[in-house]
Amino acid sequence: MKKLALKIDVDTWRGTREGVPRLMEILKRHQAGATFLFSLGPDHTGRAIKRVFRPGFLSKVSRTSVVEHYGIRTLLYGTVLPGPDIGKREAALLRGVRDAGFEVGIHCWDHIKWQDYVAGKSAAWTRAEMKKAADRFQRIFGEPARTHGAAGWQINDAALAYQKELGMLYASDGRGTHAFQPVDAAGQLLGVPQLPTTLPTLDELIGLDGLSNDNVHEHLLKLTETTPKTGHVYTLHAELEGMRLMDTFDRLLAGWKRQGYELVSCIDLFHSLDAAALPKGRVLMGEIPGRSGTLALQS
């Protein structure tokens, strides 16, 4: 059966406490699996204000109604308001996601800090940030994380290497076309297999070429009429598909089921692959349409 893995990035405290329960409900209704990746430290969303100087950021903000998606209070965390500690406040909710049968993993410790800085940081800085998230995950769930999905698709080689040291099975840190085994600049194996996001996200599409909340699902369904041999990975966000764009997501799930997809977690997709036979490739930073700045791309 064709497989489409649902990868859910949970960026904020509001997304955790409001978006996650709604997504669990809709996924159960469609009998769909999914992987929830949690931000486990402080919510400092308000510090993203400095991105206003990044090329393309303002146009994306104007298209995707950031205030409506995140809420005024969330946009003040880390600046005017102190950033709430997500993992500490919502540990019971996070365990409830796992207990409901969904895969859980690490998104980051501090979403804004990771997304804005990791690409240019040292191995020591990178490992320290990842260790904070890994330790918190262990305390919440009583077991180590099996997977990691980088915040904002921002990563460096030190992070890729550290994932293997942490005992992870696979990761989904960037964008690409098919599963692969990352290598370093010298061609040596690096970290664990990657299941890159293969499809564009709603916030990259809405507002472009006549696409809206009401019809963007039709565009995505056209992209999934064909299936890569290693399946599709679709990244959604608790703050978007779990809130204002729930109806859009509902239409997507129904459409994918009509197309014959089995909607699964990333670990289910990974277990369907022959990891030893995956092609090798680099993870490099580059740009994609609809998103400002650079992000990790499969070479």
Could you please describe the fold and organization of this structure?
With 299 residues, the chain is an alpha/beta fold. It has one domain (3-152, 208-280): Alpha-Beta Barrel (TIM Barrel), CATH 3.20.20. It is built from 13 helices and 9 strands. The strands form 3 sheets. Strands 1, 2, 3, 5 and 6 form a 5-stranded parallel beta sheet that branches. The protein has a two-stranded parallel sheet with strand order 4-7. Strand 1, helix 1 (13-29) and strand 2 (35-39) form a beta-alpha-beta unit. Helix 7 (123-141) runs parallel beside helix 8 and helix 10 (216-223) packs parallel to helix 12. The model has no long low-confidence stretch (mean pLDDT 92).
